[in-house]
Automatic annotation (TrEMBL):
Residue stretches making up the ABC transmembrane type-1 domain: 26-222
Keyword match Transmembrane helix: yes
Family: Belongs to the binding-protein-dependent transport system permease family.
Keywords from the named record: Membrane, Transmembrane, Transmembrane helix, Transport
TM regions (residue ranges): 32-54, 61-85, 91-118, 156-181, 201-225
CDD domains given in the database record: TM_PBP2 (cd06261)
Keyword Membrane: yes
Gene3D superfamilies, per the entry: MetI-like (1.10.3720.10)
Cleaved signal peptide residues: none
InterPro entries: ABC_perm_TupB-like (IPR049783), MetI-like (IPR000515), MetI-like_sf (IPR035906)
Name of the protein described by the UniProt record: ABC transporter permease
Phylogenetic placement of the source organism: Bacteria, Pseudomonadati, Pseudomonadota, Alphaproteobacteria, Rhodospirillales
Superkingdom to which the source organism belongs: Bacteria
Amino acid sequence: MHEFGLAFVTAFHLIADFDPGLVGIVALSLRVSLTAVLLSALIGLPLGAAVAAFHFPGRRAVTLFLNTAMGLPPVVVGLIVYLILSRSGPLGVLGLLFTPTAMIVAQTVLIVPIVAALTRQIVEDLLMEYGDLLRVMGTGPLTTLFTLLSEARWSLLTIVLAGFGRASAEVGAVMIVGGNIDRVTRVMTTSIALETSKGDLPLALGLGVILMILSLSVNLAAAMVRETRRA
């Protein structure tokens, strides 16, 4: 029990002293996750809105695919991205495997279906309320998409925050495509797994505390968004 107490004290000292190793891991984690969330929002929000607003051949198949892809196992996504980016894969010539870029790609593939599927549902609900009005006004496709996304902005922000929470907690896919290389692709989740297996509890606990604070902050931000929407 004394060892655990000492590990916690050391962990908080690492955080308070802004340990360079810990800061580097946290900074890389935030860079990868925030970039992935930004790309996912740019792809998933208009995609989900388009699937909800427009009728086209294969619409039901796309909807089914998005709903199914929400539950994709991270390790499967990591394996697929690994095969695509490996030397023998179609994008192997780019040399992206075991780089932060590969981790961003993997997280983006994981988050886009979540953002798109939830956006589709929200926009479909809005169409039940505003669909007739938009048709009477004769709005074009781009104007329709912009109007629906703007009307649902608070709900969509909550979705984006949820996507960030999903990305920041991911370990399987990023470990496969990133390789967990020290000072290159080692993020909070992979570091916690590695340091725990090595018995370096202070660093693992320090990163765990930061990850918990980050998760709590995301949840609080989502709650504030919901309250703002109701007000």
